[in-house]
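#structure-requests
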Amino acid sequence: MTLEAKALLGFAAAAVLVIVITPLVARLAPRIGGLDDKADRPRVHSGAIPRIGGLAIFAAIALPAVVLVDFDGPYMGILVGTLLVAALGLVDDIRGLTPSVKLLGVTLVALIPVLGYDTTFDHVTLPVIGDHDLGWAAYPLTILWIALLANLVNLIDGMDGLASGIVAIAAGSFAVLALSFGRGQAALLSAIVCGATLGFLWHNYHPARIFMGDSGALALGFLLATLSVDGVLKTAAAITLVAPLLVLAVPILDTSFVVLKRLKYGRAPWRPDHNHFYHRFMRIGFSQRRTAAYLHLWALLLSGYALLARFVPPRPHGNWDLERTLLLGGVGLLVLAASAWMVYTLEILKARHLQALGFKRFGPEEPDDTEPAVERALESHPV
């Protein structure tokens, strides 16, 4: 069986398995305390909903992986690490853990694939600048990347179907990229992850009947990080650093904005609030489905551009190609314009900011005291 056929089989098997297993996990949730009915963070839903869907996702990934993936390389460490992170997340879903404990736990688990199986990006290749060896710094940087990405996915998992769709888009993109780089096992496992998260949307899309919880979000973030390292960042192509950043730009931008906002108002970076992108979309009147669709479309645009840059590079064989450069530049401007529209619609970039940049046509703006008032209200009345 060809690698492409295995990837398609793994994708389909994971999708079917998660659709079948998820209702069984939902029935288990109230028996072990896995219901999302606590007041530990702001929510956009009401009622008690099972939040241990990550168990079904992990099972749907692990079963095809055991059959199809070659575990002679780093993938035993990656799968064992994912299992341990899912277990850590399950403890949080049932009993609750502090953010610092979860971050420490994920960081320690990251040592398994990084130190035990050499899952590191030991060099960085930048367009024009070239390739640079990281030396000993590769180990702490890779551990930091894995820990941060696991928590990025966890932070965007606050609305029906959002994290599942974002992970599915990222995993599908990594599957294509890894296959193009000749990283067959990374491509295969990425396709399986894509199938599992797409299948989970059957139960998780609004109105969600189950959430993935930390057992799913942390584990999927851990998987995406390790797959991006072994499937993309280990290669020497010029797109290797840019591609993961583009594919994962939505959760990276969302978390960066939220953390900066919390620091601006003197709150701890890990303290929950209503400043995520999906919260802001819903505050201006978008439904949950429309919000998820817009953010998924944004992620698709950025991932599509990463794939375009991979398959239509501006410097094939080291020489600049004018036609390709113009194509990438033109499409890049369209993606940038769409991203700017998102940012302006979410009122992250306000009229006064544009005026400061010289765009006077946006006209005078009244003093903005609305946002601090909203911040105070959200602090006083968390949902």
